[in-house]
Design a protein that fits this description.
elongated; 5 helices
Length: about 140
């Protein structure tokens, strides 16, 4: 491992671990009700507009969260293994999403759904597609 990789590896790995810790420590308070209150306060939305904004923000959060997690895992694993680790990173991110949806199904104010896992997968696929595109461009 090069000197810069020695510094970057723990940075990516610790950030991925922190990112996952945030996910798994969010309890009942991180449900749709919290997002609704925040959107009502920030944007002054009510009724159907609030419901639509809440849905968009929550589903976009799934996509962004798992895209970032996949990127962090891919970078840290690639540095550790000294070869591209995108399939492993994508699998770990998807497994994390499945575990989180299962965990959410045990909270009264939250729901764990296969639909949310599809949004998680969309974020993962965005990173996979981007990495494949950049790899193809550099060849």
């Amino acid at each position: 491992m090069t000197a810069s990789a020695v510094i970057r590896y723990p940075t990516y790995l610790l950030t991925a671990a922190w990112w996952s810790l945030v996910l798994f420590t969010s309890g009942e308070g991180a449900g749709a009700g919290w997002t609704r209150r925040l959107l009502r306060w920030l944007l002054g939305l009510e009724g159907e507009a609030l419901d639509t904004a809440n849905l968009i923000v929550r589903k976009a959060a799934h996509v962004v969260y798992y895209a970032v997690l996949t990127f962090l895992l891919a970078r840290s694993l690639s540095l550790a293994l000294r070869k591209p680790a995108l399939p492993v990173a994508a699998g770990l991110a998807l497994a994390t999403g499945a575990c989180d949806e299962w965990r959410q199904s045990h909270f009264g104010s939250r729901t764990g759904t296969a639909w949310d896992l599809l949004y998680d997968g969309a974020g993962i696929l965005l990173v996979v597609a981007y990495c494949c595109w950049t790899r193809a461009r550099t060849k």
